[in-house]
Specification:
transmembrane; 73% helix; mainly alpha; two-stranded antiparallel ribbon; 5 helices; single chain
């Protein structure tokens, strides 16, 4: 009879201790982390709407965040009702969200670290002025570290959640196989 490691499907590591963040078991940990991410995305969207208003770039970001919110809500429903399609969609949507977050972080860091250019017009001639970046090396290092920590937290959440989803997929497969064997008797 094959061991659990041999019959296990999927490409995500199975968490050996079955503990997720906050030192609670994997399933409640995934639920709690999902709720925390949902709340943080909603708060971030509201804050950015109040602070920055609406422009085309932000509308695209809001649409992407809204799609991720729908995906996370479907994940919670899938966990509650053991609905595999609701859980499997998370793997693709959140992976694309992680890629989007990396690109967004790089663009944001570049924008913060680059010198600011502005133009003035005097007597019909346009002049370019460059205002040097005033961030010190410590603030730059801090921003880079915070961006990396943010990404690593999201990556750990993704791996833990996908590990849980694959664990549920294996349990469902075992259940279906057992039912099929019982019906042959």
């Amino acid at each position: 009879m094959p061991s659990n490691e041999e019959k296990r499907s999927g490409c995500f590591p199975r968490l050996n201790s079955y503990w997720c963040c906050c030192c609670i078991p994997l399933r409640p940990g995934v639920k709690l982390s999902t709720w925390m991410i949902i709340i943080s995305i909603i708060v971030s969207m509201i804050y950015n709407m109040i602070k920055n208003g609406f422009d085309f770039g932000l509308v695209v970001i809001y649409i992407i965040y809204f799609i991720v919110l729908i995906s996370l809500i479907l994940l919670l429903i899938g966990i509650h009702k053991v609905n595999l399609p609701f859980m499997k969609q998370f793997k693709v949507v959140f992976f694309l969200f992680l890629v989007f977050q990396v690109v967004l972080m790089i663009i944001d860091l570049h924008r913060r670290f680059s010198d600011k250019k502005f133009y003035t017009t005097i007597n019909g001639k346009q002049y370019e002025h460059i205002e040097p970046n005033t961030l010190g090396w410590f603030k730059k290092l801090l921003l880079i570290c915070l961006a990396i920590i943010n990404f690593l937290i999201l990556l750990y959440y993704y791996v833990a959640t996908c590990s849980y989803i694959e664990e549920v997929e294996d349990d469902v497969k075992d259940y279906v196989n057992n039912r099929r064997l019982e019906s042959r008797k």
